[in-house]
Amino acid sequence: MAQVSIEYMIMIPVLILQIFLFPLVASSIMNTWVDSRQTIAIQEVASHLSSVLQQLYSSVNHNTFSTGTVTTVPGLPRYIENYPYNGTATLQEVSSGGSKVLEINLTYVGIGISTTATATFGNNMEWQDSTFMSNSTSATIVAEKQANGTIMMYFG
């Protein structure tokens, strides 16, 4: 009889600990998984946005396009898992007279997850500070080719 009581004294606290510990561990694992999934999703969007910017630049930079403005809708989702996201970009010159790199930063609105993608352009590309808002009805990319060959790009 004393042996059964000792077993209960040992097992009951262990069982109670498992009742509280299991949901906490499961919740922690799920939060990590959700964060990873959201990070991968926004990385894919940033990569796609980078590709769209490069394609638009290549089209406008072609010799057959003299001057003018091209506006394109990038075809990105307005929301990722019910979260809108914002984007900004910074243009950096790699070398004097050489190529330029545009660093695109996308961030979920309301949660702290963000990512960065880069795109490479020619030395005639200029970037106007602007913000991309995924849930905006005017979420576009604009490229303006000027008479001197400079291409000004920005989020519309």
Task: Give an overview in words.
With 156 residues, the protein is of the alpha+beta class. The chain has one domain (30-155). The protein is 38% helix and 29% strand. It has one helix and eight strands. It has one helix at 2-61; strands at 68-72, 85-93, 100-108, 114-121, 125-127, 132-133, 141-145, 151-155. The strands form two sheets. It has a four-stranded mixed sheet with strand order 1-7-8-5, covered by helices on one side. The protein has a four-stranded antiparallel sheet with strand order 4-3-2-6, with helices on one face. A hairpin with a 5-residue loop joins strand 3 (100-108) and strand 4. The model has no long low-confidence stretch (mean pLDDT 90).
Number of strands: 8
**Average predicted local confidence, pLDDT:** 90
Helix content: 25-40%
Rg, alpha carbons: 25 Å
- The neighbouring-strand order within the major sheet is 1-7-8-5
Question: In a few lines, what is going on in this structure?
Answer:
This protein is an alpha+beta fold and 156 residues long. The chain has one helix and eight strands.
Labels describing this entry:
single chain, 4-stranded antiparallel β-sheet, 4-stranded mixed β-sheet, 156 residues, 1 helix
Q: Layout of helices and strands, plus pairs?
A:
Layout: H1 2-61, E1 68-72, E2 85-93, E3 100-108, E4 114-121, E5 125-127, E6 132-133, E7 141-145, E8 151-155
Parallel strand pairs: 5-8
Antiparallel strand pairs: 1-7, 2-3, 2-6, 3-4, 7-8
